[in-house]
Amino acid sequence: MLKVVLAGLGVRGRHWAEVIARSQRAELLAFVDPSVEALARALSEFGERPAFATLEAALGALTDVDALVLANPPMRREGIVRLACALKLPMLIEKPLALDLGEALKLVQIAESAAVSLMVGLNFRYLPVTKALMRLLADDAVGRPEFARFTYERWRDGRRPDLNDYPLVMDHPMLWEQSIHHFDLMRFVYGQAPLRLQCQTWNPPWSMYAGDSNVSALIEFEGGMRVNYQGTWQGSWAAPAFEWRSDCAAGIITQRDQFGALFYARRDEAALRSVPLPPHERWISETAALFAAFLDHVLDGAPLQCSGRDHLMSLAMLEACVQSSAKGAGVLIGEVLPGGTERL
Ligand SMILES: NC(=O)c1ccc[n+]([C@@H]2O[C@H](COP(=O)([O-])OP(=O)(O)OC[C@H]3O[C@@H](n4cnc5c(N)ncnc54)[C@H](O)[C@@H]3O)[C@@H](O)[C@H]2O)c1
Question: I need a surface site. Which of 68, 72, 182, 206 has the fewest CB within 10 A?
């Protein structure tokens, strides 16, 4: 049993508490959150256990901790990462690792120089629909993908009590909180590295977010793949919409819900074919699969998935979007990577 301390008990932290509590291979040892209300709520939902306001206090008091799951907001994580590294505790940290590429690189370097594993919480990689989409591509069901359209339209009421509120004052809330999942999926599913992109970010007049909630980008990958991306958190209809359509040499693959609804068709077929998917509990089963990969790594020595270093390339795409929009010009990913064009 891996004894885990969970830090950050907000919206995402409570998914994590559910997942760790249900795991047969891990024990939810203790909770950490500076908010008294958040601690009290987690204790009443998931049962009594040691609870602390800071990770320093928890790690000072507990002697048998094996790993950390961090679901605190993505700001000021350096102290936590340094502490975990000093105690050689592997970490599973929620995306985005930081709100700045340079800061994220620093966290990765701290973990690497201490030889401590750092996994990032990219749960959408573990959805059955993502696996099925990758299988269609691997089986060559409709040939090689050449271009795609990825749209995510949502009216996200950032003032809802059941949602986190720090994105309301972020510089680029859509990019760093949401598009990070989408960009990571593109890299993961197509297996290509990003090459360059052209982007505009902006806010509609009614936006409740201080920073830009709209992102429109044309993204080119090294293998030639091009993706037209449009994402918004302030779409003017409460009903959410999602479509990720990949145009391939002999037909299309289209995903019409962020958690499922996968179809494909050959070019001359009149109707889409539906791809059967196993049952799925949103936010929980794919997070459990992500956690299983972490346990396989820490307990059984399996290779680390979703490493912090791999994550830097998705963060570089966000950074390139910010720079492209500010300059009004295309940006090569190599231009934004720390240390020039050398690969991460
Ligand atoms: N992977 C996903 O699908 C997914 C979904 C939602 C959120 N997230 C990510 O999870 C993280 C948290 O988001 P959220 O929606 O739960 O935010 P939230 O604001 O609802 O909760 C954050 C919690 O962390 C606590 N906290 C703040 N500083 C802390 C510290 N130093 N140590 C411990 N706890 C601390 C806060 O008091 C709060 O209770 C973010 O990185 C976010 O991007 C991921």
Answer: 206
CATH number where 62 lies: 3.40.50.720
Q: Structural domain tally of the chain?
A: 2
CA distance 108 to 94: 14
- Gap from CA of 32 to ligand 1 centroid (Å): 11
Q: Considering the entire predicted model, what is its pTM?
A: 0.96
110/149 same-domain check = no
Ligand 1 touching residue 95 (CB < 6 A): yes
Do 220 and 329 lie in a common domain?
yes
Q: What is the pLDDT of residues 60-119, one digit of tens each?
A: 999 999 999 999 999 999 999 999 999 999 999 999 999 999 999 999 999 999 999 999
Domain residues for the domain of 219 are 125-278+315-334
Hey, how many other C-beta atoms are within 10 angstroms of the C-beta on 201? 22
Q: Which atom of ligand 1 is nearest to the CA of 9?
A: 39
In angstroms, how far is the first alpha carbon of the chain from the final one? Answer: 34
Ligand 1 neighbour 217 (Cβ under 6 A): no
Q: What are phi and psi of 123, to 5 degrees?
A: -65, -25
Smallest CA separation from ligand 1 atom 8, residue:
12
